[in-house]
What does this fold into?
Amino acid sequence: MVEIGLTVNERQVMMHSCSRCDTRWWDSDGELLPLANLLELVGPAPRG
Ligand SMILES: [Zn+2]
It folds into this structure.
């Protein structure tokens, strides 16, 4: 299990990565953060 803390748009986000099954998930402020919500925080992907 690997945990990496990041700050996304001034929000503290923790990424968890399971080294055994390669599952990844994120949480923010101790609450599970669905991938869709994370992408919302990050904003639209750059184009081009
Ligand atoms: Zn696992």
In short: Helices lie at 35-42.
